[in-house]
Write a structure and sequence with these properties.
Strand order of the largest sheet: 3-4-5-6-2-1-7
Radius of gyration: 18 Å
Strand content: 15-25%
Oligomer: single chain
Number of helices: 6
Largest sheet: 7 strands, mixed
Structural class: alpha+beta
Length: 170
């Protein structure tokens, strides 16, 4: 499988279905500029500091409004993937969410492969392999014990122990 880490990816980050809010996530070198192509607000996202949320609307390629949204901007290297990123919170519902994703894909993003955001986080040094594996465990946790174990692994407990053993061996 070819590693495609220089492009900008987008995907729906929340389960599809009826709900109050859905999130569409984008990450990569052009994430913010591509989001600017579909986001209409009082500020350009490209001029927005990291960890800032802007209110606006998402439009399609015909400049027709899809939804009123909030867009969160994340700047490299201080993001989940270590890349520039944007998360668009739109109204829940499969149709609206898919339309928002479609607008980002039409603007130039590529549909992310399953697990690709976490894969990029690992490849960019934002987490070690045990933390990357813990993401799935955390999502699938169905008990307090499973949640505690997953959170401990996400917080680097296992990776830290492995590093100590490795250092001793070396």
């Amino acid at each position: 499988m070819k590693l495609r880490t220089n492009d900008t990816i987008a995907a729906i980050a929340t389960p599809l279905g009826a709900g109050a809010i859905s999130i569409v996530r984008m990450s990569g070198p052009n994430a913010i500029s591509l989001a600017d192509k579909v986001f209409r607000g009082n500020f350009l996202l490209s001029e927005t500091p990291g960890y800032t949320i802007r209110h606006g609307r998402v439009v399609d390629a015909k400049n027709e409004e899809i939804d009123e949204v909030l867009a969160a901007v994340f700047r490299s290297p201080h993001s989940y993937t270590g890349e520039d990123g944007v998360e668009i919170s739109c109204h829940g519902g499969s149709f609206i969410t898919k339309k928002v994703l479609s607008s980002l894909l039409e603007a130039g993003a590529r549909q992310a492969d399953p697990g690709e955001f976490t894969k990029r986080a690992f490849l960019n040094g934002m987490m070690d392999l045990s933390q990357a594996e813990a993401v799935a465990d955390l999502i699938n946790a169905n008990s307090e014990r499973a949640l505690r174990n997953s959170n401990a692994q996400m917080n680097g407990i296992l990776g830290g122990k492995v590093r100590l053993i490795r250092d001793e061996l070396l």
